[in-house]
Structures
1.
Amino acid sequence: MSLWIVTGLSGAGKATALAGLEKADLACVDNLPVGLLAAFAEQAGDGDAVAVIDARQGEALAQLDGDVSGAEVLFLDARDDVLVQRLGNSTRPHPFEALGRGLAAIAAERTALAPLRVAADVVIDTSDLTPRELQQRVRDLVQAEPPGTRGVAVTVSSFGYKHGLQLEADWVVDARMIRNPFWETRLRALTGLDPAVREFVLGEPEAHELVRRLSELLQWAAARYAEHGRRYLHVAVGCTGGRHRSVVISEELAASLREAGFEVAVRHRDVLRADPRE
């Protein structure tokens, strides 16, 4: 069986995620008291089970102290501005509502959940996800087959620094040392998924060297993660806008890791964003 703890910030989508998992006929419970986690896992038997444990537990969260009883931890996060907007439309009381429903409450909740954030196996940034997209991401994760012979499932994503850091990432790699196709008029409207942009980026010696060194380092690191029981690794590659260099490098890195026997998923966060300079 697979036991998952879903946690994260108020307004980050825990209720939406749980509703999607309930539709998939998983055993789910919201706001499970920390002390009942082991009993819930035993009651779930051989099937997949999901428990939401978050800041509503108050001081009881300290009982976990990084020990999640063999469960996988999924942490849902979002940008502060998104959380403020969502909380303004919510009728649920905030765990730190005594501090107000704005940034002060969010900051206090982040502090309270810091141990679970550190212990998280997977982080999902829900800032730009629709409810349907979030539910699909969570179902794909919870119901996925265990990682293959390498023991670690890798996600490689691309993003643009000007749109904010990739909150989900375990590793962040900067690809801005590579010449930018944006300044080539014929390539500006294209993306790293187009052959012409791929050829331009890979025409730079630094691109091949970056992919080679990253692949070798990640293969070594993944083995160390597996030794410590970690099953998931998210590597985010960034460039200025997230539409050209980071997309090409992410695709090439994913291909190299697959060739080495890893299970790899690829996501491009900002590839479809329009550039205001165009």
Note: Residues 124 and 137 are 9 Å apart (CA to CA).
2.
Amino acid sequence: MKRFLRSTGFAALPLVLLLPLVAQDAKESKKKKATAITGEQAEQILDELRDIRQLLQQQQATLQALSEKNGPAGPTRAKLDLSGFQMLGSKDAPLTLVEFTDYQCPYCRQFHVNVFHELKKNYIDTGKVRFYSRDLPLDQIHPNAMRAAEAGRCAADQGQFWAMRELMGSNPDKLDLENLVAEAGTLKMDSKTFRTCVESQKYKESVQGDILEAMKIGAEATPTFVLGKSTPQGVDGELIVGSQPYAEFVKQISKLDSK
């Protein structure tokens, strides 16, 4: 078990376990590419999705059992260069909190709705913590997650990243293209430009860069956070995995304040 897994409050299929699934999907897609999907094929796809869900449930049960057997996991440190990434708060804040998120992840929504706004009011808006948003779409199990991550960057082109992030983070069931374009319209964005940006996958490689960095630091679940002292380039801190309650973030921030 990875030593940083502290709870089951996350959506996770470790990326190393997803590789064979991806390879299998690639082989199957080649076979089916030239033919229309029949009713039988559709049922096979549903069966595969059920198998993935069952694998997730089994994996989470195993992780929980290992956690209970081995006791609390030790912290894992991470240093991140955050130059050029979306930041909320004061650039001079002494502490930095980074979230690797998947907009279709129910646990990410749980953090966003129940914890983020309190952190923003009490720590980010007061200059104590600066907050960075990074992407970790688990698109093998969340088919709209990659599109949403790219949509966030497209919204940033029009100065509306945080507003779009608020809408996507609160509504993980409305991440299809038409809903995203409609939301862009409500934010007074140029909807045509936004749609073109998303459809072109202009920021796909950029999102994949976030995924690779997440893998390097051991973040294989969403949400995963890095909380620590601010550095000129970014943050030097520890991983927090899962949708932790507000009180846990307060506890960890207080620890850092006392050092």
Note: The chain is about 55% helix and 15% strand.
3.
Amino acid sequence: MFFTFYHIAAATLYTALSLYFLRQLIKQQVPSGHLLLIIIGIALFLQGIGLYKGMVLSDGINLAIHNMLSLVIFSVNTLVLVSSLRKPLHSLFILLLPLSSIALTFSIFLEHLHLTSDVNHKAYISLSIGISLHILLSVIAYSLLFAAVLQALLLSWQNYRLKHKHIAGITKHLPPLQTMETLLFDLIWVGVILLTVGLTFGFYYIDDVFAQHLAHKTILSVIAWAIFVTLLCGRTFRGWRGNHVIQWILGGFSALMLAYFGSKLVLEVILL
């Protein structure tokens, strides 16, 4: 009940902000930065309350798919919001706000499915410190790499607009391409470092990372890690950039998304 109420409130704010962004894009005007960040902060506060009520139970932590989906969106928005106070990252909300609205709506729907089913989908009840750190670092890494995907898409759009000499509206208010690209690889570097540490904790603290219910997560996570490491090596030693970089980012993130949500989607939704 609390999960649904607070998530509906947060989704409503995300939707309203998405429409506001769309209106400003149509009018070729830049959104009001301070007002935008304040309202996003309120939406995050509401979502955080609902997430806490949904995840932290008297007998443990509920890591069902609707909670994890909301947690990732909450983490991404929080990281981008805090980072945008020091770096020009608030432009990511052009893509992040509508995605947040859709994701929270889907999360509410999934929570309703769980409440109306006879199956208990609590993935973890009692967590050790090591496994807790593994999950926490993995979610933060996933969030940073998700932000990197959005940054890559925005960079590609900005590059296209500049090549075709469409520099009016929001485009002229974005940071220079070089700055945008630097921010993109800052996100990837930090995300890969945290993913590396998170995977290390997982290999160390989980008894059998290749058990039947974990094998695909482990393999896909390692594949995603290898893709991002290859990308960073290509960037450092070969100077990769442009669409080539975006393809590698999308490939790595796709593997990571399947690792995190693939089995949960099958077990908790398709086979519900």
Note: The beta strands are 56-57, 60-61.
4.
Amino acid sequence: MSKIKILDLTISSIGSIYSALRKTGVKNIEVVRDLKSLQREHLLVIPGNGNFGQASTALDQHNLRSYLQDFISNGGKILGICLGMQILAISSEESDEGVGLNYFKTKVKRFPNEKNLRIPNIGWAEVTASSNPFNFHSLKAPSDFYFSHSYFVEDSPNISGKLTSNNGTFEFCCGIVQEQIIAVQFHPEKSSRSGAKFLDDVVSWANE
């Protein structure tokens, strides 16, 4: 990995993730709004606070879908964070018209209206890895990460490398760790030491 590219969809702040990635020691980090210069050896970060529908519209307005498809087909690696995880799914209950990137064959759901759930789910919660295919040090034991969301990627039998967390008594998929795509619902850039360790692991994975 010679460079990290942070995709700016112009719908949320990217300052925190930029600063957190700089702390991993990577010096060549670029914020981009198009992917014309994206190459296989780059790590592409899709950050995110914001609305699924707005993100879907931004992908179309900037003709990003075909670039992303080519990048994945050529072996490129992606880190998706929060909305950046959700947009990798098929669709979301947050937007009737928004269409995701369809890399995860599942949909994004809103937390059910149960009395013991926080909606939105804001704060620290424990994350557990059902498998750890890249032997990430940050995932070897359950650790607390920071969340801020009302929607989550629905679990599916075709999801491997799954991370889970709980909102009250409700367990949900909060991360997917696969060969070319790592996506998490929590915010590593806001998760103190555990988040820093996770980003260190991601950078090491991207350099393999």
Note: The longest strand covers residues 121-129.
